[in-house]
Amino acid sequence: MPVGNPLNAVSHLATRHDVTPLAGMLAARAAAHPDRRAFVFLEDGEAEGPVLTFAELDAKAQAIAAHIRLHAGPGDRAMLLYAPGLDYVAAFWGCLYAGVAAVPVYPPRDAKTAERLIAIAKDAKAKLALTTGELLAKTGVKRWIAPGLRRMKWLATDAVPAAVAPPAPVDPAAIGLVQYTSGSTGVPKGVLVTQANLAHNASLLQAAWDASGFGPQPPTFASWPPMYHDMGLIGKVVVPVAMGGTCVLMSPLHFLQRPARWLELISRYRADVSAGPNFAYDLCARRVPADGLDLSCWKVALNGAEPVRADALDRFATAFAPAGFRPEAFYPCYGMAEATLFVTGGLAQAAPTVLHLQPEALGADRVEVGAAGLPVVGVGKPWGDQRVRIVRDGQALGEDAIGEIWVAGPSIAAGYWQRPAETAEAFGGYLGADGPFLRTGDLGFLRAGELFVTGRLKDLVIIRGRNLYPQDLEASVAVASPGLRAGGGAAFGVTIDGEERLVVVQEVDKRNPPADAKAVLRAVREALAAQHDVGLHALVLVPAGVLPKTSSGKVQRHRARERYLAGALPAWQAP
User: Fold this and answer.
1) Of 189, 202, 239, 293, which has fewest CB within 10 angstroms of its CB?
2) What does the H/E/C string look like for 381-410?
């Protein structure tokens, strides 16, 4: 039967797979290598700041767990409200030791950006909010406290006393993480990731490292993606501990302020593994000189979280060949929060596979590959006991056939928090008796067992690795300025210079049209920046009735995008 209740999915997972809780991995590392540096944080993106050995991290995590257990028990949820740094790392592992689900959230910058925090707190029904004494004392945070936040117990974890007893064993099926993704109606969805999911996903990456022939020495990681994002949290907080390596961290803000810091970090600490979305590689290729860098140490340059573009890989490899970067280090991969993180990847030290599809292939049932055409980068094969199927109309397809990507295996999350209908829809895919599968909503095909992602069945807009739902963007635009027609907008992404950019086509109200198009543009830009933290490439104002819609009145975003790219949208002219 399809999964209808997330708790049933957890039980189902625990009985089907021989799994261990993730928390035990930290204890094992602390016992085997107590003095090895586990995490190093660069406070300004350059100068070395706080350091935690495995023994120190284990002790801090146990102390935090003991503090948590005074106020919450197994199955409760604790929000993590920290600036980037090692306090975040210790609090996450403390939650795992306590058997309490961590809910990562970024501290709000102002009242407007606190809306996401408030929405998540309301949905998660978190019992605790973990933070630092400094953040807790800030008057700004207190000003933003809404009833949903006020009900939580707020704890500062940077000065808790040492634990007097070791943590109790944790059920592998316990929820270790509630990873919130952007919701299609403005309300975020919480993905239920068990400790078993986390341990299994880390084991897949360990297997990929071992199979690539790098030897028994644990890798050194360098990382900047935000810890409230699955790539950042799992890739730089979970996996380094599971593999026994050292991870050197920096804030994403410091990377964006000066992208060279990322590559300088890799060069300085001789990092083996570092990850980023496609835009990060392209940003460095365009802005960072190779002078003074030595990237010959970089064995695995993971590229995921958004479509991997062949031209961006080429630009980066060319730009940093003088610094010793090898194209074979590129590691395109595919994953998502609903699969914990990692689904497919290749063997490191092998150049990415790039196929050139004929333009008509993306709209056809099967791909046509030629010597020239649209380049599509392979994202590897499923590892271990993960399974990938390409499905159309409830049937699994053969190779070179385009359909929806379905995934199954022990890394697949338990469902969505308190959303049984959406859990059943997304996590309850069956192919006869084979299942359940996660329906990813992405389109792709398999060739020689390797996955190629060709598009999105859903209308997600992916900007710099962030998933943005067009409904949310369109709703913000419609009320940003008077004279815009509600329900008359279409938001979509277009590729400009190898990077995904946001375009919004918006109908005007014919009975009350705006007087100043430039004022509308300014208001829309400000609304999107404030409410979604995203920039706008283009706003196209069109007369009412221009947007293509279905017979039931739903906007056809893909057709609006096609007309925009073809220059076939009639622009509205201000009176």
Assistant:
1) 293
2) EECCCCEEEEEECCEECCCCECEEEEEECC
